[in-house]
Amino acid sequence: MLGPVQFISYSEDVVIIFNAHHVQYHIFSDNKQLFASAPVHEVHEVKKTVERCTAATKDWCAPRRLRLNDGRMEVIWLGTRGRLQQLADIGSHIIKPPTVVRDLGVYIDAELTFCEHVRRVTSSYFFHLRRLRQIRKHVNRQVMEQLVYAFVISRLVYCNGILAGLPMRLLGQLQWVQNSAAKLVRGLQPRDHNKPALFELHWLPVHLRIQYKLCLLMHSVTVQCCPSYTRNKRNHPRPH
């Protein structure tokens, strides 16, 4: 019981620090995220606030034999291309803003185009498909379907709700991955049609799967079968 109690105490202390600096946050087991929004003319104040909060967190960790991993600390400005150009000379003395950050397996770029995310995950998917294709003759179809779903399809649908509204040229790259995975399971040739394979496997196309994910999320919010933080978002006023 001592370990969890101590962990909860640590989390509560960190939350107090974040609230004292008036920043919003997400806290995971080994990951702390701060975020804030402001007009361009107020961004200097936001930068100073985040720096003070980071420094205060470091000071809190030191006497407790804890340490923030500076090598994994990142900060990124999000906005339109025009706004980001105005912020080109605004950095951080503690952390230098990159153009892409990785958050829970999702690659977030400064303009929220998700081009880099699609490029990286597509490359990873085809790597797994090439490896699985090497053992296709040594396993039956059921085993191959389970392997493809575990290494490719499960990752293809992970956090896919954030891809809603992306151009079809980007979603088409992910659809290409799904088509290749379906042909591998069915033992089809590259030139064979993929729609019968998707239909037999009960795999929705990528863009429809995204719509299904969002509809399922909103349904769970409506019937209140979701976490409280998701349910509370429904009643938050929209920013002006």
Question: Would you kindly provide a written description of the structure presented here, covering whatever features stand out?
Answer:
- This protein is mainly alpha-helical and 240 residues long.
- The protein contains 9 helices and 4 strands.
- It has helices at residues 2-20, 43-61, 81-86, 115-133, 141-156, 168-186, 195-201, 206-222, 228-233, and strands at residues 24-27, 32-35, 100-103, 106-109.
- The radius of gyration is 22 Å and the shape is elongated.
- The chain starts with a helix and ends in a 7-residue tail after the last helix.
- The strands form 2 sheets. A two-stranded antiparallel ribbon has the order 1-2.
- It folds into 2 domains: 2-112; 115-222.
- A hairpin with a 2-residue loop joins strand 3 (100-103) and strand 4 (106-109).
Please outline what is shown here.
With 240 residues, the protein is mainly alpha-helical. The chain contains 9 helices and 4 strands, in the order H-E-E-H-H-E-E-H-H-H-H-H-H. It has 2 domains: 2-112; 115-222.
